[in-house]
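Incident log, support desk, overnight shift.

02:14 A customer reports that sequence design results differ from what the structure should imply. Their input is reproduced verbatim below. On-call engineer (initials T.W.) acknowledged and began investigating.
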């Protein structure tokens, strides 16, 4: 009898699931500003998308084994990255929680009680004191006619995919920061080596000038100028050492080490920037994890509109109960102790003071915010690449002109030394020429360092070796 009663209800529930509607708008990736080429790359030409993109360990492009070893330590030791991994795990778990509503919920319970019935109620029945034992299994299943559950699952899945892209973005940012700090460290070491050589040269110049003064050939002012120049160079050298220490400490934290336990042997920067082809602008949207994350949040917000709209309609549940109830344990397994119940349940809003309409309006506004954020993220991605392409081009030109400036400054210093040694000029001309050469050399070293760090930032702006495959593919679990 129970089977004959429940079959039509199950059939109705199955039909409802098959015929259920979806109140979320049909989702399409939002339109955004598009570029056909990079304005800051005069040599740009069409290429097969992603062909020249570095894959995976993009930092190996720079050919520095020490950097490669440091990058290997980031994945397991960096706590910022570990926090992002944990956040992604939470998002995946939230998707599984949402998916649980797609399935029937089965609960079990039981109790054994000795009870006393009131004797002062209308028509009291005896016995007033009795035993009652109950064991039951309950069943409930929401018939998702309006797509509320499906859209909640879709939104959770989209947010999990956004979290996966966020994780990739955090890792890309950390690895780029590590590479930039590493090259800045090596650049400081190059400047340090230059200043150490200059200090030694100035010490020798001070000794010679002092001897000339004692011999009556040079003036006291020449000694003072040589001393001033030496101390200024020592001050610059001390400042460079401070910067190196701070960069070393930053690198230590990124690889999960206390600064006091971390050291790197000095190796002045000698690497040249690798050639990095930006590829097609259209592929930037495939290679930037922040763009992918923003787009997935738009999809989640779109599903949220369907969840909110479903609030206007009643919720249908299919419920069932089967169990045993008896006053004595010995009668539990007899037929008269069987209990069961089955049937649909319906609940819906009659008056809610505008709650559902407010939730629907809020969901539409959240979607609009997500679309605007996505479009701004796309614009920011284009800007990042254009900025780094401009920097790379300009710094290459600066490096050429600065190298020429160093050569010219060295010639000027050689002439000044000849004139001074020949008694044709004062030591001030030598000091001016030496300062000009030092400034030119330090500037050349700084430009070289900036070219390396901007190369790293260009790789980051292009998305590194990451692709959106698996995120746009809706594979979140």
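02:41 Re-run completed on a clean worker. Output:
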């Amino acid at each position: 009898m129970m089977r004959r009663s429940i079959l039509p209800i199950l059939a109705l529930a199955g039909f409802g699931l098959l015929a259920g509607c979806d109140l979320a708008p049909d989702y399409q990736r939002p339109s955004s500003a598009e570029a056909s080429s990079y304005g800051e790359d005069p040599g740009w030409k069409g290429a097969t998308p992603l062909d020249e993109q570095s894959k995976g360990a993009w930092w190996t492009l720079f050919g520095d084994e020490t950097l490669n070893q440091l990058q290997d330590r980031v994945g397991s030791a960096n706590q910022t990255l570990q926090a992002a991994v944990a956040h992604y795990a939470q998002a995946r778990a939230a998707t599984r929680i949402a998916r649980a509503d797609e399935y029937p919920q089965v609960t079990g319970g039981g109790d054994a009680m000795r009870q006393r019935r009131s004797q002062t109620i209308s028509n009291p029945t005896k016995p007033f004191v009795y035993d009652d034992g109950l064991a039951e299994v309950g069943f409930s299943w929401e018939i998702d006619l309006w797509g509320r559950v499906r859209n909640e699952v879709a939104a959770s899945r989209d947010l999990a995919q956004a979290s996966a892209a966020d994780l990739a973005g955090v890792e890309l940012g950390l690895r780029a920061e590590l590479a930039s700090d590493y090259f800045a460290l090596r650049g400081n070491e190059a400047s340090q080596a230059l200043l150490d050589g200059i200090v030694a040269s100035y010490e020798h110049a001070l000794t010679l000038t002092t001897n000339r003064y004692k011999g009556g050939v040079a003036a006291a002012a020449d000694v003072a100028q040589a001393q001033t120049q030496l101390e200024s160079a020592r001050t610059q050298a001390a400042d460079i050492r401070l910067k190196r220490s701070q960069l070393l400490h930053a690198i230590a934290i990124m690889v999960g080490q206390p600064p006091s336990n971390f050291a790197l042997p000095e190796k002045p920067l000698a690497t040249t920037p690798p050639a990095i082809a930006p590829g097609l602008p259209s592929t930037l949207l495939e290679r930037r994890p922040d763009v992918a994350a923003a787009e997935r949040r738009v999809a989640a917000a779109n599903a949220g509109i369907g969840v909110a709209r479903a609030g206007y309609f009643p919720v249908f549940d299919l419920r069932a109960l089967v169990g045993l109830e008896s006053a004595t344990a010995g009668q539990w397994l007899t037929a008269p102790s069987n209990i069961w119940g089955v049937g649909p349940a319906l609940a819906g809003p009659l008056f809610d003071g505008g709650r559902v309409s407010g939730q629907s309006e809020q969901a539409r506004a959240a979607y609009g915010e997500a679309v605007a954020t996505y479009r701004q993220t796309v614009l920011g991605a284009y800007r990042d690449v254009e900025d780094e392409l401009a920097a790379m081009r300009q710094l290459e030109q600066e490096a050429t002109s600065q190298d020429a400036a160093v050569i010219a400054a060295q010639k000027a210093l050689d002439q000044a030394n000849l004139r001074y040694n020949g008694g044709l000029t004062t030591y001030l001309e030598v000091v001016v020429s030496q300062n000009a050469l030092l400034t030119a050399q330090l500037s050349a070293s700084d430009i070289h360092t900036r070219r390396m760090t901007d190369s790293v930032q260009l790789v980051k702006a292009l998305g590194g070796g990451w692709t959106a495959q698996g995120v746009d593919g809706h594979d979140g679990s």
